[in-house]
Structure formats: C-alpha cells, structure tokens
C-alpha cells in the first residue's frame, strides 16, 4: 500500500515505515502529525482525488530536525571578471510514516 502526498509544494510517494526529509516544520521530536492532502492511494486499486482523496489520512512521526550538507553555487562569466560563490544548507525535518488510512 502506498500513497502520494503533498507537503511544502512537493509531492512524495510514501509507504508505511518510510523515512523522508520534509522542509523544516518547527516541530518537536516524537510529535505525531496527520496530513490530509493525499493526492492518491493504492491498496490493490488506485484511487485518485480531485484534488484530494476523501477520508484519506497519512500519519507521520517527527524523528528530528537538522540541516543538509552544504551545496556550493559558483557562477563565473568568462572574460568579464565576474564571479560569485555562495553556499546553501537546507533546513529539514526527518519524519517516519506511521500509518496510511484510506
């Protein structure tokens, strides 16, 4: 059984027991949260919503919050003496999918 959910403008295909990285949600560890923005559920047959599936809920538990590895963004325009070096670290919330209820 899997579901496709929407969180933070992104779509995720999830199964029970999966561990995902969502955008930072500012929640304490061991907090349980329900997502009702379920776009599709497959438990033998595929049910899609318009835009969401009625009565479908995905429950997840927050594991921790952290930051990803640094990504270096370097831009150089040749022969223009123009270069920019920037770093970026994404804040994330690590979650475990506990239950998919359709």
Features:
102 residues, mainly beta, four-stranded antiparallel beta sheet, 0% helix
In percent, how helical is the residue content? under 10%
Largest sheet: 4 strands, antiparallel
Overall pLDDT score: 95
Give the DSSP E fraction (strand runs of 2 or more residues).
over 45%
- The SS-based structural class is mainly beta
Number of helical elements: 0
- Describe the global form: elongated
Q: SSE string, helix = H, strand = E?
A: EEEEEEEEEE
Cα end-to-end separation: 10 Å
Model regions low in confidence, pLDDT < 50 over at least 5 residues = none
Rg (C-alpha, Å): 18 Å
> How many runs of DSSP E, i.e. beta strands?
10
Give me the side-by-side strand order of the main sheet: 2-1-5-6
Structural domains: how many: 1
Itemize the secondary structure elements and their pairings.
Blueprint: E1 2-7, E2 10-14, E3 19-23, E4 32-35, E5 38-42, E6 46-48, E7 57-67, E8 71-77, E9 82-88, E10 91-101
Antiparallel strand pairs: 1-2, 1-5, 3-10, 4-7, 5-6, 7-10, 8-9
Structure overview:
This protein is mostly beta strands and about 100 residues long. The chain has one domain. About 0% of the residues lie in helices and about 65% in strands. It has no helices and ten strands. The protein has strands spanning about 1-5, 10-15, 20-25, 30-35, 40, 45-50, 55-65, 70-75, 80-90, 90-100. It has a four-stranded antiparallel β-sheet, with no helix packed on it. Strand 5 and strand 6 form a beta hairpin. The radius of gyration is 18 Å and the shape is elongated. About 15% of the residues are buried. The mean pLDDT is about 95.
């Amino acid at each position: 059984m899997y579901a496709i959910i929407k969180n933070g403008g992104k779509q995720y295909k999830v199964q029970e027991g999966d561990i995902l990285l969502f955008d930072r949600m500012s929640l304490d560890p061991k907090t349980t949260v329900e997502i009702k923005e379920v776009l599709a559920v497959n438990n033998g047959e595929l049910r899609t919503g318009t835009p969401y599936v009625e009565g479908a809920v995905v429950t997840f538990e927050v594991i921790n919050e952290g930051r990803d590895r640094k990504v270096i963004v370097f831009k150089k325009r040749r022969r223009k003496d123009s270069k920019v070096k920037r770093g970026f670290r994404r804040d994330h919330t690590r979650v475990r999918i506990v239950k998919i209820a359709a």
